[in-house]
Write a structure and sequence with these properties.
144 residues, alpha+beta, three-stranded antiparallel β-sheet, two-stranded antiparallel sheet, membrane, mitochondrion
Length: 144
């Protein structure tokens, strides 16, 4: 009799453990300041951006890709030339964040490390144009 009870409790415990494991793998958390894009193995990246909180997904079919959407600083040291052929050392601090509605497009075209791929080239170009523009402004005589 006691062995029958232990066998029943064991089967019930095993069943609960399996159900709990499936439910646990179907839940994911999106922290404050983050957003998620869902990658589906059959349909690809979905166009829906998931907000903060606890959400469901289909285990082993869908995978959440988390993005940090808070403003983050990045320091970029750049050596550029001025109009009078002098080297100028400038450290530029950039505060950036992704556009939340464009996260699926950012993930499909650039990837999760979009800041490492995009920011260095953009900052170098813009900084050089600003240095050239400022050197022109400072060299112009004032008209009174």
């Amino acid at each position: 009799m006691a062995s029958k009870i232990f066998e029943t409790v064991g089967k019930l415990g095993l069943g609960l453990a399996i159900v709990g494991g499936v439910v646990n793998s179907a839940l994911y958390n999106v922290d404050a300041g983050h957003r998620a894009v869902i990658f589906d193995r059959f349909q690809g990246v979905q166009d829906i951006v998931v907000g903060e909180g606890t959400h469901f997904l289909i285990p082993w079919v869908q995978k959440p890709i988390l993005f940090d959407c808070r403003s983050r600083p990045r320091n970029v040291p750049v050596i550029t030339g001025s109009k009078d052929l002098q080297n100028v050392n400038i450290t530029l601090r950039i505060l950036f964040r992704p556009v939340m509605t464009q996260l699926p497009r950012i993930f499909t075209t650039i990837g999760e490390d979009y800041d490492e791929r995009v920011l260095p080239s953009i900052t170098t170009e813009i900084l050089k144009s600003v240095v050239v523009r400022e050197s022109r402004i400072r060299q112009c005589p004032l008209l009174l």
